[in-house]
Amino acid sequence: MYELLLLLLPVAAASGWWAARRSANKEKKTYAGRDPAYFRGLNYLLNEQPDKAIDVFIKLLEVDAETVETHLAMGNLFRRRGEVDRAIRIHQNLIARSTLSQEQRALALLELGQDYMRAGLFDRAESLFSELVDTGLHRERALSNLKEIYQQEKDWARCLEVARQLEAVSGQAHSTEIAHYYCEQAEDAREVNDLDGAWALTRKALGVDRRCARATLLQAAIERARNDPKAAIKSYRQVIQQDADFLTEALPGLLECCSQTEDRRELATYLRGLYVQQRDTRILLVLADLLRQESGDAAAERLVGEHLQHHADLLALERFVALKRRSADTGDHRDILDVLQQLVRRLLEKQPAYLCVRCGFSARRLHWQCPGCKGWGTLRPLPTDDVEPPGSGTQADVARQSPPD
User: Fold this and answer.
1) DSSP string covering 94-133, please?
2) Cβ contact 260:226 at 8 Å
3) Are 268 and 258 a contacting pair, CB within 8 Å?
4) Which residues pair with 354 in a beta bridge?
5) What span, in angstroms and rounded, lies between the C-alpha atoms of 19 and 184?
């Protein structure tokens, strides 16, 4: 109740000021207490009847050129507090007034549309925003809200249409969003086994944004569905060239395709080159597996140990402990290493794998659209190591323990 009182007191004060001003214009006594409606509104407020108080203050605060902003601010305040029904009532009351100018009515329509969006009434909100787009008033904000509605409804065709309109109105490129809309359509096509349609949509996405790693990942998935692992390998490598951060998304498919083509030597050479460039732990673990198959556990253990000397990395530590456990000579040593491995795994489970560079939202799995800020392509894989001392990571680290060709 105390918070609501603080909220409505400015409204009561504004109403009192208007009552006093109106009384002055009519050459009556000039203080708000002379208007019984003002006292009635305060009485409702103090008796915990805020709805009736709002009705009184709205009626008392007549709409004209000087009070429109007060109504808009009051409705906006209620919406931000989550009291959408009250915001809707205020903005509807405002729109019903015939004294509003075209600009004032457009602004009230925009606010009411946002109220409807907050309430989940997307059809009503869409109607109001479409009206604003047609009139040309507050067009950019109306289009932005329409885009948000269509995204929630997963109407990607309309998203594309609105994004193109936004580019024309704002003069700013929306290539990232447009590419992801095409990718969403490609995902839908792939789910119904329309591989040709999905491929055409990925081509459109790359035509808009040639650095769209998601589109190339989709192309690799389509090539695998077509039983063409060599073409898929080429696409996975292209993903890493487009955006090295998405190595984590490309690597599993790359490994599976290479196992199908049995081109192990080329894979090892390629991964060594990547590791030298990026020092990514996931590449190291694949190299360790290849080395263990060729030369045994001790060689793989040395390779991972070299990495840990320069990188504070839980993924590498977990593998190092697992390799140590395999070579432990006594049961007591194995028990200790089991406890250590379980502890490291629990720490890994608590760590996010992706972080939004715009709002800081963290997640364990990749979202192409951030659930926090709704940005497209803003979630990035986190680096696997936290500390890299200066001067670490020379080519000698991997060259000394490289898997044999």
Assistant:
1) HHT-TT--HHHHHHHHHHHHHHHHHHT-HHHHHHHHHHHH
2) no
3) no
4) 363, 381
5) 56
CA distance 348 to 350: 5
Q: Which of 217, 238, 220, 218 is nearest to 229 (CA)?
A: 220
Query: Is the model's pTM score more than 0.70?
Result: yes
C-beta separation of 369 from 361 below 8 A: no
**Tens digit of pLDDT per residue, the chain (405 long)?**
445 444 554 554 444 544 455 444 444 434 344 456 556 655 655 666 666 666 666 665 555 555 677 777 777 777 887 878 888 888 888 888 777 788 888 888 998 899 999 888 999 999 999 999 998 889 999 999 999 999 999 999 999 999 999 999 998 999 999 999 999 999 999 999 999 999 999 999 999 999 999 999 999 999 999 999 999 999 999 998 898 888 888 888 988 888 887 667 778 888 888 888 778 888 888 888 888 887 788 888 888 888 888 877 777 788 888 877 777 766 667 777 778 878 877 877 777 788 999 998 988 889 999 999 999 999 988 776 543 333 444 444 444 455 544
DSSP element (H, E) containing 289: helix 281-295
DSSP 367: -
Phi, psi values for residue 379, rounded to 5°: -80, 125
Longest CA pairwise span in the chain (Å): 103
DSSP string, 312-349: B-HHHHHHHHHHHHHH--SHHHHHHHHHHHHHHHHHHH
Q: 306, 263, 281, 257: which is closest to 405 by C-alpha?
A: 263
Residue found under tokens 């040395």? 302
Angle at 173 between CA 170 and CA 179, to 5 degrees: 135
Tokens of 177: 């969003």
**Using an 8 Å Cβ cutoff, are 166 and 141 in contact?**
no
- Residues paired with 355 in a beta bridge: 362, 380
How many CB atoms lie under 10 A from the CB of residue 230? 12
| DSSP one-letter string for 68-101 | HHHHHHHHHHHHHTT-HHHHHHHHHHHHT-TT--
CA distance 296 to 379: 38
| Residue 375: HSE in the Cβ half-sphere, 13 Å Cα cutoff | 13
